[in-house]
Fold this sequence. Notes:
The complex is a heterodimer.
Chain A: E1 4-9, H1 17-30, E2 35-39, H2 47-50, H3 61-65, H4 71-74, E3 76-77, E4 84-87, H5 100-111, E5 116-120, H6 127-133, E6 138-143, H7 147-161, E7 169-176, H8 178-182, H9 189-196, E8 199-205, H10 208-216, H11 222-235, H12 243-259
Helix pairs in contact in A: 1-11, 5-6
Chain B: E1 5-10, E2 13-18, H1 24-37, H2 39-42, E3 46-52, H3 58-70, E4 74-80, H4 83-91, H5 127-130, E5 134-137, E6 146-149, E7 152-156, E8 164-167, E9 171-177, E10 180-183, E11 193-198, E12 202-205, E13 208-210, E14 224-229, E15 232-237
Parallel strand pairs in B: 2-3, 3-4, 5-7, 6-8, 7-9, 8-10, 9-11, 10-12
Antiparallel strand pairs in B: 1-2, 11-14, 12-13, 14-15
Helix pairs in contact in B: 3-4
Amino acid sequence: xxxxxxxxxxxxxxxxxxxxxxxxxxxxxxxxxxxxxxxxxxxxxxxxxxxxxxxxxxxxxxxxxxxxxxxxxxxxxxxxxxxxxxxxxxxxxxxxxxxxxxxxxxxxxxxxxxxxxxxxxxxxxxxxxxxxxxxxxxxxxxxxxxxxxxxxxxxxxxxxxxxxxxxxxxxxxxxxxxxxxxxxxxxxxxxxxxxxxxxxxxxxxxxxxxxxxxxxxxxxxxxxxxxxxxxxxxxxxxxxxxxxxxxxxxxxxxxxxxxxx
Amino acid sequence: xxxxxxxxxxxxxxxxxxxxxxxxxxxxxxxxxxxxxxxxxxxxxxxxxxxxxxxxxxxxxxxxxxxxxxxxxxxxxxxxxxxxxxxxxxxxxxxxxxxxxxxxxxxxxxxxxxxxxxxxxxxxxxxxxxxxxxxxxxxxxxxxxxxxxxxxxxxxxxxxxxxxxxxxxxxxxxxxxxxxxxxxxxxxxxxxxxxxxxxxxxxxxxxxxxxxxxxxxxxxxxxxxxxxxxxxxxxxxxxx
Lengths: 261, 240
C-alpha cells in the first residue's frame, strides 16, 4: 500500500505547525505506523529540535536534492520509535535551494516504504509554501482561535482550493482555552468552522506541557498529548469523538437560545 | 460623442473599445476623465484596449500608457488590425493578443463570461430576459481574493473577511457576506447588495460607504438587501 503525504501548514507563523508535525509524527509512530517527517522550512529548521534529534543530524534535505548523499543517509532515526525518521532542513541555505519537483521526487521515493510522510511547511505563502504543498496528498491547516490566525488560514485554504490540482484540506485548531471560549472571550470551534467551512480533524487544548516537552524534544503527555493521539487516530481513519468540542458547543447552544429572544 | 469609449468586463480585466473614427485627442481626454471619475474602480485594474483599424504611432500610445500608469491602471494589451498600431504596441512591450496575458486575478475561478447571443429575435423577449452582464462565482471567496468587474456579481457561497468585490452593478451573495463589497462602483446609485447574511466589513454603493453596526454575533442570520435611499445606505429585511 502506498503511503500518504500530509503537509502541515498555516499561513501565519507561530501557531504551532512544527509542534503539531512533531507530536503527530510521534503519536502515529506510537500507533506502530511507519513515519517520515520532512522539515521543509529550509534555513529556519527546528523540527529536529522539537523531536529531540538535533545532535544526530549529518546530512539534510538540500544535500539529498543536490546529490551529496542518498536519501537513506539523510534520514535520522528517532531513538524512541523503531519506524520514525526525520529528514532535516538545511540551516545554511534558503528556500530557493529546492523546487516543488524536488519535493515530489523525494516523496515518491519514500511512499512505498512508509505509511505517512509528514511535511512541515514554513510560514507564509511564497516559495517555501509551494515546495511544501507540491507533494501533498492532503493538507492539515493549523490555526489558533484568534482572528489573525484564522484570516491567514482562510487565505491559505483559498490558495490550495484554486491550486491546479485541488488537495483535500482539514483543520487542526491549536491552543484552545475552553475557559476563555466559555466566557465568550475566544473564538469557539464553531466560530472557526463557520468561517473556514472545512472539516475539523483535531482540537488541541492549551497546555503548558507542550512547551516543556518541545524544549526537551519529547512527545507531549497530558491533555494535549491525548489530543494529538486522537488526531493521529482520526488521520488513520478511526472515528474518535471530539472531547472538548462537545462542551463548548453545548454551552453555545444555551447562549444562542437566550440571545435569539 | 457619448459612445466613443465603451467599457466591458472580460476574463482578462476590463475591455475598453475606442471608436476608430473618433478624434484621438478627444478620446484621450474622454478616457482619462472617465477613469478619474471612477478612480476607486480603476485603481489597480488591468485593462485591454480595442483600437480597431485606427493607426496609432508609438509616441501617442506611450503618452496614453503614461496617463494610465499615473492613475495606477495597468494596460496589458492593445488589440488592433492596424500594422502601425501593432508595431507601436510591440515596441512598448505590450501584448497584441489576449492569449498572451492570463485572466485577471480573482476572475480566474469565475465562469467565463458568455457573450450575449447576437441574433435574438427582436421584440420577442423583454430586455429583462436578455438581461445584463454579470459573473457567477460558484465558490466561497476567501480572504485575499479580489473580484473586479463592470457588471454584476453573484456569489454562490460565502464572502469571507479579507475578500473584496468591486462591481459596476449589483452584488448578490447566496451565503454569508463578511468581506468588503462595492456595488455601483462606476457611479450607479440604484445598485443593490443582497446577502443571506449581511455582515460586511464595509459596504459601499456608488460613492457612499457604510460599516455594519456592531451587532450581537449570535443573532439569527436573515436575508437583507442594502440600497441607497435619501442619500444614505439602508439595509432592510428581504421579505418581499
